[in-house]
Amino acid sequence: MDLQQRINAFAKLGRFLCQFKTDGITKDDTVTSNDLFFEGFKHQIKLAKEHNGWFTEANILFSLESWCKALTDNNIKQWISKYNFNLSEPKTIGIIMAGNIPLVGFHDFLSVLISGHKVLVKQSSNDKHLLPFLAKYLEVVEPGFKDKITFTEGKLENFDAVIATGSDNTARYFEYYFKDKPSIVRKNRNSVAVLTGNETHEQLEALSDDMFRYYGLGCRNVSKLFVPKDYNFEAFFKAVYKWHHVIHEAKYANNYDYNKAVYLMSEFDMLENGFLMVKEDPSYASPIATVFYETYDSEDDLKKKLKSDSDKIQCVVADGFMKNEVDFGETQKPQLWDYADNVDTVEFLLKI
């Protein structure tokens, strides 16, 4: 199986996923092998929703639509154009996946297979229904993948390198356990937004997408705001109101009620609007239904702080503040070349 065959297979997968969008699920009879997989994947979406209450249909379909847009022939070729794919010998790459948002480990899965390696996947129990089904689709549209993809529920064994994603605590275990293997170990990260007070309503409304999509559970979700001294949150609260419906979803509402009770009993100062709490706090990781904020005096000092804390930050949302910033509303729309933790996964895989 050559590189072009791998590209073709993932582009076909992208076309398959384009049937599952946030504005509805519509069958396209021109999609390769659709009669075998369309109804089955609808069932997997149903199972994923039933298994994990955070995986609403809206969140699953948002993830699928994002991959539909990413997995085009042109996009894949643009992504891989800078690499040399002449592997001397394919290796087996273990991937330990997180389960915080739907298909969160798909980019690692894609990177391993597009590089020509074999993949050994250990999924999170929170996100176990979607990827194995999509792997079967790949094996049907490109039979060369049949001996390249393995899933395991047990201990990872017989692999040459590993990509592991977890918390700061599990990362210490990963680093010890995989110390004799080439590895990428990812820890907790959060995303931040830098506000000046001059943002438009549209920018702040887009920021609310960065905060609330996937209930804020992803590392690319904004959980912390940096604002000028004496920042007025009135325009911010008006803009985020577009997400007020989230309070009607039971798991979110339970977290909101619990965290609000904790803050009130602890007599913490906070602002809230009935579905979101805003609390001044130096931490980056905020609880569900809460966004933390911190004030800054000087942009230069803030840039230094963000640089020194770069190992805790996934994205910085801003408008003309710094290099490599992300536009408002774009954190959950990464391109194929936007690597987690800024570690080039494909470069790592091609050097093994």
Automatic annotation (TrEMBL):
One of its GO terms (molecular function) is acyl-CoA dehydrogenase activity. InterPro entries: Ald_DH/histidinol_DH (IPR016161), CoA_reduct_LuxC (IPR008670). Keywords: NADP. It holds the Pfam family LuxC. One of its GO terms (biological process) is bioluminescence. This is Acyl-CoA reductase. It comes from Winogradskyella ouciana.
